[in-house]
């Protein structure tokens, strides 16, 4: 994502159902929402996630997949 001095809002969502990613247990954001952290990943954290950054200049999105492998 491009850096700008305009104040932004960051929204993290699960792509499968569009619900806020922070509604999942053991998920948090750090650095004013710039970092996404799963504290102790398990099968319910598998899937695709999207971060949307919004400000007066526009909108940017990035998505990523998480897979949890059991040992």
UniProtKB/TrEMBL annotation:
Residues 32-68 form the Immunoglobulin I-set domain. Gene3D superfamilies: Immunoglobulins. It comes from the Eukaryota. Pfam families: I-set. This is Ig-like domain-containing protein.
């Amino acid at each position: 994502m491009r850096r700008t001095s305009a104040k932004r809002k960051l929204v993290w969502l699960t792509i499968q159902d569009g619900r806020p990613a922070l509604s999942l247990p053991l998920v948090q954001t750090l650095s004013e929402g710039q970092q996404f952290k799963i504290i102790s990943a398990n099968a319910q954290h598998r899937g695709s996630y999207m971060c949307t950054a919004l400000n007066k200049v526009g909108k940017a999105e990035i998505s990523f997949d998480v897979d949890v492998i059991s040992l």
